[in-house]
């Protein structure tokens, strides 16, 4: 299996991952995302693979700081 990675054009901190060749998730518009790479399953984080299997996509944010973590 292969996964397609995308970056959100309006805010490049946001990343979307879907199974390569899969339809776009409901509510997402392909014209809002730029394809950055396609990776094999072995080169994709297990948590991302699980999210794609369960929800059809994985959405995450790059560049958070430790201050963004909820208090312990």
Structural class: alpha+beta
Strand order of the largest sheet: 3-1-2-4
Count structural domains.
1
Mean pLDDT: 96
Q: DSSP strand (E) fraction?
A: 25-35%
Model regions low in confidence, pLDDT < 50 over at least 5 residues? none
Largest sheet: 4 strands, antiparallel
Tally of contiguous helical segments: 1
The end-to-end distance, rounded to whole angstroms, is 37 Å
What is the number of beta strands?
A: 4
Shape descriptor reads globular
Helix share of residues?
Answer: 10-25%
Helix/strand order, N-terminal first: EEEHE
From the alpha carbons, calculate the radius of gyration and give it in angstroms.
13 Å
Short description:
The protein is α+β, with helices and mostly antiparallel strands and 72 residues long. The protein is built from 1 helix and 4 strands, in the order βββαβ.
